[in-house]
């Protein structure tokens, strides 16, 4: 009877924590988030003044972008702020729930797991979250596709059989999510590699192939839109007139600079936590000593750069990454970027090493997701808006990082010693405190 009561109490507490997260997100939308008067919001607000919905979407597809389902939803909600708030709350909860499932490997996420992931999201650079999740136009373009894609992956990576309704929902959500270029890259990488693994082991089902095909079709429709070429020319003229003169190495430098900048950004508390948790995972691992010592400096570099800012010293070079050909005269910027890229590679390696202790297909996919997430930001080096799109373009990368950090934390909780479990609870307490600080900043700054 006592065991039964403990289980019931734990379940009720889990539900209560999940409801607390929902309440906090709802209050944020009701009291803080409002319709912003930025250019994109104003543009879509007046989209149907001269055209009907289908004429507008056809115009955008031929002249600007292939994100048709995304812009369809954006036009419908932009003038109905309370509808957007309701849907945005649901999408944020779906994203955190799906990431909690991916991190734990369980069939369902608990309220505690959902709350931990929600807190981890708040540790990401505030600008990334604000412009990708709390801004109306940004949320429909970044948060919503990421949420749908994450949910689709929870069904796709499920080890046991998925029901017909779940499969249908995954196909629809995955197909819609793939209209976002960065989410499409993530889905294509994870699904194609896992599908090859399933096929080689004879565990692939027909719907797995259909799922991959749906994502490929959506991606092709979005990327082959006639408007993409027009958009490229217009954005180049506006934001980067000399972009066509850049060589491959210049564009690679821009992309690597973007990745390095978000990894070492002092406001990105998630990366400080990631480096610390990865250090614990590396120390506990049974890898050869030489490999361990080759990875240790990279993790210490990330942690050290963040700790410098915490103690009150922010080096000039911490934000001076090369984002164009004009940076060629600053060798210190390239040296810092090279070390930062190596450090991030160490973080990916530790995530991969940690995954070798489990046999689920989902496990090695987490390290691949982290690497692919960085790739979605790296490829912006080949876009003329690479220096103008803002920090929201790092959203997919950061959400992949959240899943990996949550997975590494779960390994601490499941560790063999009481000491590791104690460290886990101390880290969780620090995460909650930092998340509350970030939430307070949102409410106070409103």
Q: Compute the gyration radius: what is it?
A: 22 Å
- SSE sequence, one letter per element: HHHHHHHHHHHHHHHHHHH
In terms of structural class, how would the helical and strand content be classed?
mainly alpha
Please, what is the average pLDDT? Answer: 84
The helix fraction, in percent, is over 70%
Residues in β-strands, percent: under 5%
Report the uncertain regions: 2-6, 325-329
Q: What does this molecule look like?
A:
With 446 residues, the protein is mainly α. It has one domain (9-444). 75% of the residues lie in helices and 0% in strands. It has 19 helices and no strands. The protein has helices at residues 2-31, 39-45, 53-63, 68-77, 81-104, 111-122, 126-134, 136-156, 164-177, 181-201, 206-223, 227-239, 248-264, 269-284, 289-310, 331-355, 362-378, 395-413, 418-444. Helix 5 (81-104) packs across helix 6 (111-122) and helix 5 (81-104) runs parallel beside helix 8. It is globular and about 65 Å long. It starts with a helix and ends with a helix.
């Amino acid at each position: 009877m006592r065991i039964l009561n403990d289980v019931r109490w734990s379940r009720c507490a889990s539900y209560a924590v999940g409801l607390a997260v929902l309440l906090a997100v709802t209050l944020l939308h009701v009291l803080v988030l409002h319709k912003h008067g930025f250019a994109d919001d104003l543009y879509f607000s007046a989209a149907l003044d001269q055209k009907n919905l289908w004429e507008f979407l056809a115009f955008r597809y031929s002249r600007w972008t292939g994100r048709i389902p995304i812009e369809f939803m954006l036009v419908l909600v932009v003038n109905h702020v309370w509808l957007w708030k309701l849907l945005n709350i649901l999408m944020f909860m779906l994203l955190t729930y799906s990431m909690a499932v991916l991190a734990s490997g369980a069939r369902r996420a608990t309220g505690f797991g959902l709350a931990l992931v929600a807190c981890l999201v708040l540790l990401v650079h505030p600008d990334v979250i604000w412009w990708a999740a709390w801004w109306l136009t940004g949320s429909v373009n970044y948060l919503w596709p990421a949420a749908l894609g994450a949910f689709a992956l929870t069904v796709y990576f499920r080890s046991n059989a998925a029901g017909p309704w779940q499969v249908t929902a995954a196909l629809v959500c995955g197909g819609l999510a793939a209209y976002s270029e960065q989410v499409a890259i993530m889905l294509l990488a994870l699904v194609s590699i896992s599908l090859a693994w399933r096929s080689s082991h004879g565990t692939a089902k027909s719907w797995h192939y259909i799922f991959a095909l749906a994502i490929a079709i959506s991606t092709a429709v979005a990327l082959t839109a006639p408007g993409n070429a027009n958009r490229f020319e217009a954005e180049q003229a506006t934001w980067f007139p000399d972009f066509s003169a850049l060589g491959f190495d210049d564009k690679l430098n821009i992309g690597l600079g973007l990745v390095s900048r978000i990894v070492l950004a002092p406001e990105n508390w998630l990366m400080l936590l990631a480096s610390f948790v990865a250090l614990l995972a590396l120390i506990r691992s049974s890898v050869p000593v030489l490999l361990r010592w080759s990875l240790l400096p990279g993790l210490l570099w990330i942690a050290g750069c963040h700790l410098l800012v915490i103690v009150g010293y922010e080096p000039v070079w911490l934000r001076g990454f090369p984002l164009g050909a004009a940076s060629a005269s600053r060798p210190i910027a390239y040296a810092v970027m090279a070390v930062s890229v190596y450090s991030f590679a160490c973080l990916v390696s530790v995530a991969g090493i940690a995954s070798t202790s489990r046999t689920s297909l989902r496990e090695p996919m987490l390290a691949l997701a982290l690497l692919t997430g960085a790739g979605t930001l790296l490829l912006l080096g080949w876009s003329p808006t690479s220096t103008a799109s803002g920090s929201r373009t790092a959203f997919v990368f950061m959400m992949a990082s959240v899943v990996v950090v949550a997975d590494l934390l779960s390994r601490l909780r499941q560790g063999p010693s009481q000491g590791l479990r104690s460290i886990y609870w101390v880290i969780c307490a620090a995460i909650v405190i930092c998340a509350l600080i970030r939430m307070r900043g949102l409410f106070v700054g409103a």
